[in-house]
Amino acid sequence: MVMVNYRLSGQQGTKWPLYIQDAAASVAWVANNIAQYGGDPNNIFIMGFSAGAYLTHMLSIDPKWYTAINFDRNRIKGYVAISGQTRAHGTVAADLGIQQNQLMSLRADAMPLGHVKKTEKPIHIFVGEYEGQTITDNYDYYNQLASKGSTNLFIYTNPKKDHGGMRDGLGDANSPTRTKILDFIRIYSSTVNLSPNIAYRKPVTVSSSENTVNTGEKAVDANGNTRWSSAYSDTQWIYVDLGATYNVNRVKIAWEAACAKNYYLESSGDAKSWTNVRTVTNNAALVNDHTGLSRNARYIRIYATQRATAYGYSIYEFEVYGTLTG
Questions:
Q1: Where would I find the F5/8 type C domain in this sequence (predicted)?
Q2: Which domains does the chain have, with CATH numbers?
């Protein structure tokens, strides 16, 4: 891990966009020099908190900052933005001589929401439950990126955290944000033989839904705050259509407290004939990470036979990993 620095607004006449240029130069220096310090130049991830997350967003969405210094942006594996500004930033507005609420109308180029497009690299956004407008703005940014066809895009709201709590929580080994950051890096690192989540936003079919909110597609939207929940009975199922045949090597399930005690993980080529991949009994874990699989399939199903609670089954995320066959 490398902590990079940049000039703050007001220091030695620094104003927007000099601190973005500083951030881009710092990233390039790390990528070009990290090998001599024992780091891997092929696994560079950019992460920032608050104003640093604003810079992370700007580097991830606007290629001109890297282009200006002849740095290949494809060398970056992914971006993690924690509690960043996407619509309004007081310092940026002051530097430009306008009000915060004028940024998107007068200088949209200065904010991430002014550059919405299909993204090239994985991005994970984090906000705290008590961050107010920051939540709204980041979810708006996430949804707009998704509407442009962006994939490998993730967002998570950490419960009971305000702005300072999001920063301080990174030092907590039990922090869900910290866990998700490490998992994100592990998945998209080139040293790990795992492909991206191929179930992301793919068609889902379920046996039932508890209501019209917690529906099947919520299990594959990469949003750790939404979920699918079934009717309150034992035998229920959910399957995802990957759209083509993949050699599936991993399936990860993130349950709500209403998890399955017993279930089968199954595969199929036609969604009619199912083959057992793994049998799970007496499960009490809320995250089941099935690795070391090798199954050619287009459809992957979770077939639950016994609940752990009196409620139905509830899944936050149903992730599938593998490589396209043929």
A1: 187-323
A2: 11-188 (3.40.50.1820), 204-324 (2.60.120.260)
pLDDT in tens, 236-281: 999 999 999 999 999 999 999 999 999 999 999 999 999 999 999 9
In angstroms, the CA 162 to CA 167 distance is 9
39 pLDDT band (50/70/90 cuts)? confident
